[in-house]
UniProtKB/TrEMBL annotation:
One of its GO terms (molecular function) is RNA binding. The keyword Zinc-finger does not apply. Gene3D superfamilies: Tetratricopeptide repeat domain. It holds the Pfam family PPR. PPR repeats lie at residues 71-105, 173-207, 243-273, 274-307, 343-373, 374-408, 409-443. One of its GO terms (biological process) is RNA modification. The lineage of its organism: Eukaryota, Viridiplantae, Streptophyta, Embryophyta, Tracheophyta. It comes from the Eukaryota. This is Smr domain-containing protein. Keywords: Repeat. InterPro entries: E_motif, PPR_At4g14850-like_plant, PPR_rpt, TPR-like_helical_dom_sf.
Amino acid sequence: MYAARKIVPLSNKHSLQWVQNYTTRTKIPIANLSKGAKGSAILATNVMRSFFDNGLIDDARALFDEMPERDVVMWTAMIAGYTSCNQYVHAWTVFCEMVNNWENPNAFTLSNVLKACKSLQCLARGGLVHGMAIKLGLEGSLYVDNALMDMYATCCISMEDACSIFRDMKEKNMVTWTTLITGYTHRGDGYGGLQVFREMLLDEAELNPHSFSIAIRACAAIGSNTFGRQIQAAVIKNGLGSNLPVMNSMLDMYCRCGFLSEANAYFYEMSEKNLITWNTLLAGYERLGSKEALNIFSQMESEGFRPNCFTFTSITAACANLAVLNCGQQVHGGIICRGLQGNLVLANALIDMYAKCGSIADSRKIFREMSDRNLVSWTSMMIGYGAHGYGKEAVKLFDEMVVSGIRPDRIVFMAVLSACSHAGLIDEGLRCFESMSNYNVTPDQEIYGCVVDLLGRGGRVEEAYQLIKGMPFKPNESVWGALLGACKAHKLPRMGKLAALKVLDLRPNKVGAYVMLSNIYAAEGKWGESARMRKLMRRTGSRKEAGRSWIEVRNQVYSFVVGDKVGSHTEWAHGVVELLILHMKEAGYIPDLHCLIHDLEDGT
């Protein structure tokens, strides 16, 4: 068969005539193209594939529609082309047309349409294709079985159906094993994925880099550095220690397990690096909130690597975590210079970054300028409004989002409730809470915790307690903790004692609850009970986590921890505090020290 030459894009008209002219002009003997079939059909199929490879989907469809006769190869090429271009609905539509035209699909047809079903997350359609495979006697095909297993692993709520296909397969290859490992790993079941990988080794199945990469991903999913090292030894034993995708997976495993020093050492030992390598290390430092992420980004650029959307997403998140506005603005400039400002994920990251860095006006500007918004965009803006105390704006934005046709989820309701709580908008918050059923969102522990906090901050503590009593499930520590905070703020020792005991019953090492109880008993003059609470607190071995604050001054980030006495910046901070105390005294402010009784014992 003669290979098709480089094709000039068509004008979507007279495509078939063009193909026929092409065969005449190039003097390709039709007999050489296909015995007993029209040569133009085979050439048209090759041209169609070329169109899909170059993203010319409309041209491929125009050529397909003009063909007077279509065989199974052409139908399959059309379905495969749509699937490769992420046009899964069109792929399914063509498959239905094929069946309605009484053209029996082959194994390659079914494997491609199953990929479309998987990507559409449509189990019902996948089940129909499975039934057709059985009817046509294609269930034993390796291509079909692998595609069926992949579809069931992705679309089902469990791995049972995928495992059933796997067990019934008479023939397995490395794709079969890797597909099953991937199915377990992608749903967060790293142990299941590693068990399949172990069976793969015992079966002496052929291993490839992807098999090891996905097994390493399984180790990362369960946070097991130990299993990861064992697989690394197997990688070296199989001569894949220098394979770049495998090395990148190992680096990702170290990062996700929290072993940044090991990840850093492994990174510098790598014989080869690409942009994925740098992005992996950068994301690792960003997840742990380390300012080293900024240095990694600078080093990456200095070595000639051009950052992409994934790079900018991680570095923007790092700037947000560190609240370094100046660095965030520079990153934003880099995004604009590379023409990536229209990227939806990056725009969402910038909204979050500016909000966390204190510039809610910039967050709002980016949000309003977005041509396309998704649920994350609206949620990020609501969270930003809430953090800055703009509760009314958050509620207004929630109403705008609903009108725009986007359905709120659990996180959206948490953002709105938190915003209302901090702004004292109790009635608005309760209205949002009561509307959750309209969107098929069921309140969970965190939602109830937000509503308890909302009522508690507004002084409606008894109402918050009644809400807890009416919960459809047993309240957890965070719900009782919200009530405890409200009791402390409004000086309600009786209910505070109840809430503190509930918290300690659920989480015995909760330091704040011991401190609260001790203070309540001390205020009541029950010094013995107060001392007993302190003694129990010391026995737990826990300490109240010290608060940390940081501020950016002249491109330098300074952090402060309660009790810091070393460093020039702490001296400046103490000087500012003394000045504030002086102004407070001049204003006649009298501090309420009641809640600080005996807090010196726990070092906070």
